[in-house]
Design brief:
With 396 residues, this protein is of the alpha/beta class. The chain contains twelve helices and ten strands. Helix 2 (49-71) packs parallel to helix 4 and helix 8 (231-238) packs across helix 10 (285-314). The relative contact order is 0.17. Mean pLDDT is 94; it is low at 392-396. Bound molecules: 5'-O-[(R)-(carboxyoxy)(hydroxy)phosphoryl]adenosine and zinc ion (ZN). The site of zinc ion has 6 residues, from helix 6.
Length: 396
Amino acid sequence: MRILAIETSCDETAISIIETTTSGDNIRVLSDMVMTQIDIHKEYGGVFPALAKREHAKNLVPLFAESLHSAGLYTEKEQELDTTAIKQILEREPELFTALDALARKIEKPDIDMIAVTYGPGLAPALWVGVNFARALSELWNIPLMPINHMEGHIVSVLAQPDYQKKDAALLSIPEQEFPLLALLISGGHTQLVLVRDWTDYKIIGETIDDAVGEAFDKVARLLGMEYPGGPKISKAAQDGVEDESISLPRPMLHSKDLNFSFSGLKTSARYLIDDLKREDKLDTQTINSIAREFQQAATDVLLKKTKSAIEQYGAQGLIIAGGVSANKHIRGTFTEVLTRDYGIPVYTPPLSLCGDNSFMIAIAAYMHTQRQKKTTPQNEVVAHGNASLAGTEGN
Ligand code: KG4
Ligand code: ZN
């Protein structure tokens, strides 16, 4: 079985094609491509939705054609086609229709059995482009469609082998008896604790009441004069920071009894501290590095405390850390050290190339669903949901 996966929830346009291996219990990657828009959004200091939509619409067809080529599924064949139906589906993306119409007239239907597409959460205009593109392909070639939750993608990204692109069995096997697992999802848009009762069966047990942790990294980075996305820059600067009594930030909600987080107070405290230091003309490179270190430590402390409470409350047998911020070395290292020491449980993190948004994780999620006999959805019923929740998946 071959699955085509499409991801356009934020500022990466991504397409993967996977196929189940002959043994049927794993997959291999036929092609896996990501086009990032970071350079385009940089000057806005964050992702600008209308621009993201335009870029996805421009890039999807060339990326799709390249993916087919690289997967060996591109066969030229000139033909007449009635494309009225896909023109209607892509009514709001005329440029995308023109490009797809031209491509469809010169190739054979590719040998793909299912299309998986991110339907949310994410930026609605960006999500719609991917969803409508997937619907158009589904209609054009009569290929079943499966909408996938982006956060579920992040969770299952930990199943990927470190060298997943080269392997026949691209997925690790994490034994069944290790459930329930806990997932800490940390990205630019989310900070959530999710109970994973089985792959495809999730329950949100804690989340941020205001900013996401990645958003806080990005905002503090901006105050320190670093470019978007600031997370990796904070993480790098923090390595050269030192402990300094005069640079101290709060640990919001560290002692609250629930499993929720708050990061806006931490960000505001960082702003006051940075403003004061600027006024006193003391914001030199060493001070910037030390603020980065303290901010990263404060964020890690809060994430760790709530994660430990959740592990204890739910008897989690392992922790998954995923999402863009899971690329952070300090967070990965601290969690692995502490959880191994205190509970003897494993910490699963995705390969670094799969921490950020990608379509391979969407392909993995679709594969896990097919393994559990989930049905596909008629193309005209698939809609984008900017605020889609994991609670909408099975078992809740
Ligand atoms: O999952 P992701 O690629 O996109 C969303 O779905 O939001 O996450 C992006 C976020 C950004 O806020 C970025 O600054 C942050 O992940 N990030 C990091 C690191 N690498 C990326 N934050 C802290 N340390 C890092 N090394
Ligand atoms: Zn994401």
